[in-house]
Design brief:
The chain is an alpha+beta fold and 520 residues long. The chain contains 17 helices and 11 strands. Strands 4, 5, 6, 7, 8, 9, 10 and 11 form an 8-stranded antiparallel β-sheet that branches. Strand 8 (428-439) and strand 9 (444-453) form a beta hairpin. Helix 10 crosses helix 12 (217-248) and helix 11 runs parallel beside helix 13. It is flat, with a radius of gyration of 28 Å.
Length: 520
């Protein structure tokens, strides 16, 4: 009786002709793709291994394969029919990969690789098979280590929510940037407090839970929305509770390793509660194959329209993705030597060389060359910092979430404010990013910064990446630099910076252009 019930739950009809050939052709095509894009795959695995935020990446492929295995009965009823109409999408995904490589945007390259692997399924097996496997294939996107771009926003939200909670609780709070002071001590929201780990983990687990427990698309999307919102609010509550525990205990609780332990225990409790509530609306299915009956007729209809040889489809898949690593290699042939020399910026008329203004410099990683000088005008001082980047890649790139004015773990300097402003100098108007920094002993700095991308001054991260990609595609290299000017905060600080930029910007541009052209 047990054996009969099992066969009724998981029907195993005979596998239709075409599956062994299609499966072998697809496997060979995938192996070729992974060899061609091995560096991108290696970069993903490296991030999984070193980052607690993205360690779940190791689980994505096994879970996806298990989801496919659950559908083996319904898949066996279909006949693979290659669909060559998806080949233009391969070209689009391959070009996106190339853009990610030339602009040093690793997530774009990684998403593109995963999309190429996903698209190989309809190309070789056809629309019917792909329709049955939409969720297992889409689940592979969780393998891409993506989401750190949200860190600044989530950190700011967490700080705002925590401060609001403390004030409602009657605790006096003075906030400045991501740091705040209460009677029992000083607290600061750092990267680990942003909640991005909770959010990414909850989204992946919540999406899987919704797929396995609901049949209605409305319920599935609703639960995914809950899986996004709940960890954000839970992290705010977690941060507030940790600060209150430290405050009420005289800073004997929740201030060391137990800070993180309490956080994960609380997150686990919240996720369990979310799943318990979500399971009350669970819809049981009679069999695994029932989950795909709604789309079966459409899928078969699509499959009937598909034409093409399995071997031809697999070959075209490999050819359509092989051109992009070749293109990237050709672009890389124009690479310049790593060595760079920045001509020292001499003081303009009315300015002179001065002693260092402060023991601070931007935290930008692995530049090809740097230059730090201090210029004085009377009793006033302006610091100038240049960081030059060439031959950018995963380990060396100008625009990165790791490159900041002040790192969150810095206990000497604190980033307390951000802004934007336009600076008019004669006929030229420049957009600049601004910041205010505060030292532990109370000194405050006003900071202006730009990106120099092959001669063009840019304030936006996204535009900087776009122009870097454009210049590399045009064969002009990826030479870029960070320009930072700063001075002590006073009533005349902005006027002083404007004067400095107006008188020194021509020589700064000339020095950077000379560094770029020095090895042509």
């Amino acid at each position: 009786m047990d054996r009969v019930d099992h066969e009724k739950t998981l029907p195993t009809p005979g596998i239709r002709s075409g599956w062994p050939t299609a499966g072998l052709a697809w496997l060979i095509a995938v192996l070729f793709i992974l060899v061609l894009y091995r560096e991108t795959l290696r970069s993903m695995i490296d991030i999984w291994a070193r980052s607690d935020t993205f360690a779940h990446g190791f689980l994505v492929l096994p879970i996806s394969l298990w989801l496919v295995w659950r559908l083996r009965g319904s898949l066996a009823e279909l006949t693979p029919r290659p669909d060559l109409r998806v080949l233009p999408l391969f070209l689009l995904a391959g070009f996106a990969w190339l853009l990610g490589e030339v602009a040093s945007v690793a997530p774009l390259s990684q998403f593109s690789l995963v999309m190429v692997l996903i698209l190989s399924v309809p190309a070789v097996f056809g629309g019917a098979v792909t329709t049955r496997l939409l969720f297992p294939l889409g689940f592979l996107l969780f393998a891409v280590p993506f989401g750190e771009f949200a860190l600044p926003v989530l950190m700011n939200w967490t700080a705002s929510a925590t401060v609001w909670g403390l004030r409602v609780s009657g605790v006096p709070v003075y906030r400045e940037g991501l740091g705040f002071v209460i009677p029992s001590g000083h607290w600061s929201v750092v990267e680990a407090c942003s909640g991005v780990r909770y959010l990414i983990a909850s989204l992946m687990i919540g999406t899987l839970f919704a797929y396995l427990n609901y049949r209605s698309l409305k319920r599935r999307w609703l639960f995914v929305g809950v899986a996004i919102i709940v960890p954000v609010f839970a992290n705010w509550l977690r941060a507030y509770m940790i600060v209150m525990l430290g405050h009420l205990s005289g800073n004997t609780l929740a201030v060391g390793v137990d800070h993180l332990i309490y956080g994960w225990l609380f997150f686990g409790l919240v996720i369990m509660l979310m799943f318990w509530v979500g399971s009350r609306w669970r819809v049981d299915v009679d069999s695994v194959d029932d989950q795909t009956k709604v789309s079966a007729s459409v899928a078969v209809h699509q499959s009937a329209k598909a034409r093409g040889s399995v071997a031809l489809a697999a070959s075209l898949v490999v050819l359509s993705v092989a051109i992009w690593p070749f293109a990237e290699w050709r672009i890389g042939e124009n690479i310049k030597p790593d060595s760079v020399r920045i001509t020292p910026i001499m003081p303009a008329s009315g300015w002179g060389v001065a002693a260092p203004l402060a023991d601070w410099s931007p935290r930008y990683l692995n530049p090809s060359q740097t230059s730090a000088t201090t210029h004085g005008k009377g009793a006033d001082k302006v610091g100038l910092y240049l960081a030059y980047y060439r031959n950018q890649g995963d380990e060396r790139k100008l625009v990165s979430s790791s490159n900041v004015l002040v790192h969150g773990s810095d206990r000497r300097w604190f980033h307390v404010a951000d802004g934007r402003r336009q600076i008019t100098m004669g006929d030229e108007t420049l957009d600049a990013r601004t910041a205010e920094l505060r030292s532990a002993d109370g000194m405050r700095l006003i900071v202006w910064q730009w990106y120099w991308i092959n001669g063009r001054l840019i304030a936006s991260d996204y535009l900087a990446k776009a122009y870097t990609a454009l210049y590399r595609l045009l064969g002009q290299g990826d030479d870029s630099a960070l320009i930072v000017v700063y001075t002590e905060k006073t009533d005349t600080a902005e006027e002083l910076l404007r004067d400095f930029v107006a008188t020194h910007l021509p020589s700064i541009r000339s020095a950077l252009s000379t560094a770029r052209d020095g090895h042509d």
